Amino acid sequence: MALGCLAIAGIAAYHLALIGPFAVILMLNPWVHYYGAWPVVGVLLFIWWTLQPNHVTPGIPVARTEAPALFEAADELADRLGAPRIDEVRLVDDFNAAAVEAPVHWHPWRKRRVLVLGVPLLALVDKETVRSVIAHELGHFSRRHGRLGQWIYRARAGWLEYAEVTTKSVSLFERSAAFFAGWFAPRFSRLSFSYSRRCEFEADAYGAAIVGELTMASALLTVEAFGDRWQRMEREQLPRLIAQQDTPPASWMAEVQQQVLTRPPQSEEWEQLQARLSSEHDTHPSLGERVRALGVSGEQLLQAARLPDRSAGIEWMSNWVSVVARHDAEWQRTHAGSWRREYIRQRHQRRHLDTLRAAQDLGLERTRLELDYGEPTTVMDLARSWLDHDALRSQAAFLLGSAQLAAGDKSGIATLEACIARDPVWAAPARACIGRHAAMLDGEASRRRNRALFERAVDRRARALSQLHMTLARGELSPARLDGLTRTVLQETLSGMPTVAAAWCAADEITNDNRRYTAVTLILRLHTERLNDAGLTEDDMRAEAFRVLDGVLPDVTLKFVWSAYTTEPLTPELDSCLAEWGRSEDPCCLVMPKPNDAVAAGVRPLALG
Fold it and tell me: Which CATH number fits domain 349-464: 1.10.150, 1.10.1220, 1.10.357, 1.25.40?
């Protein structure tokens, strides 16, 4: 009851903050005293109505005629669970399932219930597994939770969504409501966390009452195990695939099925998954807790595990072939740019590593490449030989600690901590590496400490990077002296981007908080029309260019991407600096301006002759 009252009070305060500024402005108008308060109330209601967040439900809607069996199964489960029926089914491109209550646009008092299913989920498991997953999701809508309990569970999810939506793009008048949502949502989330986690156990139990305890537990294991395999494939197999071909595979889902559906969930996977603790931010309990709550033993679970004879998608959807084809085409489209970038990087780096190996090179350049493409033991042997070298000791310690953690050696944490203590400039990359292996840390307190120190290190680097803005505006730049491998990768990648009109690379040394950083800035001029035609934004291009830069420079280097459209002017100082680099054909010019390109005024004479 207390949580319910708090949620209601929070919603009331949010809406008051949303329309409060307008109410003050309206009440200060002199005509209010003449016409009375009712017109003000009407105007405020209209403003409140127009300011409701526009919820965009992810995925592509599925018509009942396209998947009648799926809708029949969902309706049957809803009826047996005492839950309202689903209004809409949507397909997304990740390995996931969810049931959400989405507001109807321009009708904020109405809700529609949407079942969201991932195409990979429907492709990798059978219909009994998906039926169990749907039963769990619909269990959250069940009246068995009690109206108040169901509402609190949904209120928590709603508040977290409010906080995300209202802070993405808000007007001046909406900022008070956005601030309140950002302040209230995490606090209400923490207070209602234990209740929401209990709701997850209840949803499992409600679903198990329909499909059976063993079937529900088997579905939980199958989804966790196959989801892990899918993620491991993207993490381990995908880089190997990228190295072999320069474009994404046309039949991506077939590749996934070939890698994931090799065997039923195994005992070692069960042991690993049941020992995995759930995140402190995730209301879902761990797999082990959920299976134990259903009263199913590990032996029973593994005996019931099997590969699907036919996938749920084939069984339930009449247009499944076209669904998979759309999924494959969309996956290929969204990964085309990053695939090309990674293909170029890997091709050159692997080739260079082979050259270094053939020459029996023992330097840190080879050590860094071995960390990406070789064996951890090789990295450790090479890195240890440089620990006594004063100038390179910190870099060697970072590579050694990273390799130790990659090999499952917990001592890598101590190595990275010593690296940070010796040279705090390495704090951000070292703490990021520790964070990627957070399971090796001793307890949640250690994980929280590492996260806090990582955020502090990132903040220091951000403050250091802020100094580059003034340096750029004044044109006080030095051309970056890149090694041959780095320049080749950057040049080939950027020159193949149609939206990039010109690119330069600058370098600088920045001191902040008694830490001296090496900074590399990638300066881009972007074709305005081509960017618009491609449906991309300047932020999209900066993010992609940063990933290119991040893939070739050492982790400790500060990386910054600055961009401007070809239609906007540069400061005279920066314009003069870039023009001089172009005239002298400095190697820092990665993409030279071409004739008839509308680049900055200072470089246009060079470009047009």
Answer: 1.25.40
